[in-house]
Amino acid sequence: MVSSSPLGANCLSADICAPLAHKKINLTFFTHLSGDRQVICTASEMGEAAFTQVKSRAAPGSELHLQRGTAVIAVYPHDKRPEILGTFIRSLAQARVILHGLAYSPSAITVVLSSRRVKAVVQQLFEHFYFPAFASPEEFFGAQPPPAELVQQVVATYQEKVIKVYWILPQPDLDLWGAKVSSTAILEGFANALIDLGELGLKIPFLVASPGLGGKDFLLSFSTSKAASQGDQGPEVRRILQAHLPDIRPMRLAPVAGIFLHGPHFGDRYGVVYTFLQALGRARVSLLALSCTVSSISAVLKQQELKAAMRILEETFEAPRSMAGPRPRKPTFVP
Amino acid sequence: MSAKYVLIVDDDPDLVETVSMILESKGYEVGKAYDGIEGEAAVKKRRPDVLVLDVMMPRKNGYQLCKELKADQATKSIPVVLLTAVGEAVPTTTYSHAEGMAVEAEDFIPKPVDAATLVEAVERLL
Fold it and tell me: CA-CA distance, B66 to A130, in Å (whole number)?
């Protein structure tokens, strides 16, 4: 589903995540860009139910589109290197893919695409990348278990009242870049820009690309981080983006901070991002961008709100003691 | 003296990333693999000083890999830390602690894994 709301009209937690969590609908992929746009993926048998729930809460002027028959492909690790993302996007371009969503977790790049293009994409990925675990696309497809088997392996293990996570990791001193890019430019142009950005030595710890409802444009949001020894590379980043995407008007916000929350099988559990958003709402933290994919939640917020965000998240989730604050005070969403 | 080499085998790439960061920050060299078959190949390619092994993985699970390594003279002395998210007896899964206890791993750490506990477990085995 792609959802777009008038600025300020959408309450992400209440209007989208709450009804899906209460109906026990797992979000296999979820991205949000502040004030505007979400991409929501669920298992195919839950698609209609999810669409109905979100539609029932949509504000006047909102738009919602259900795209059936999609699949999610993730490759890892990306080491936060822009040239890896650029090569990945180039593979998608050569497979003639229409992107329905693109997002990062701390180590994986995830794309939402039509199920019919999966084989073509995997073929291209094997042309551009070396996968030590599989010698060929055929071997890769042969090794995939049926989805039901995967769900059976994890479903009963995580029923705790306070959600346990592996880590809550902050990363301050990031730049956040945002731009609207035409659908034709997103693949080749952005891929080439990323490969050039790799030569600057920048890292990209966060990225979301959300399609517009008409399919004509994408909203891009990504953050860059640099080594302490490097000066401000913002002008160079802007130059590279505009060299490959001449019509782009990139927006830069700095400094911002990332928070990366990682937990057991987040990709197979409902209610986790709802709990996350509720917590940030209680602390009055404004989310600039959000990516939920693989087993992680990655969020970008204003740097001055980082402390408040970390405190509330450490109170809400049970994090390992070496990285946690006070023990959780109140139960969170209980299925 | 060269750094000790720890191999992490887990199908969760974000967990591998974070565990690697923690161990590298403690001065260890870290190798990564994302399922049991890849892990087996990585062990054969370069013998780790400690193997950190997830239980529930595709293609070959951690119990199976650990059993095979312990049954092989060439690899039986590699210390293994199993990361397990499995409760005592979870009826909907095919794993159990009882099976785990039979595989002769040197240590078991329950998930979500605590960074300090993991580092202690690795250092105890070196």
Answer: 27
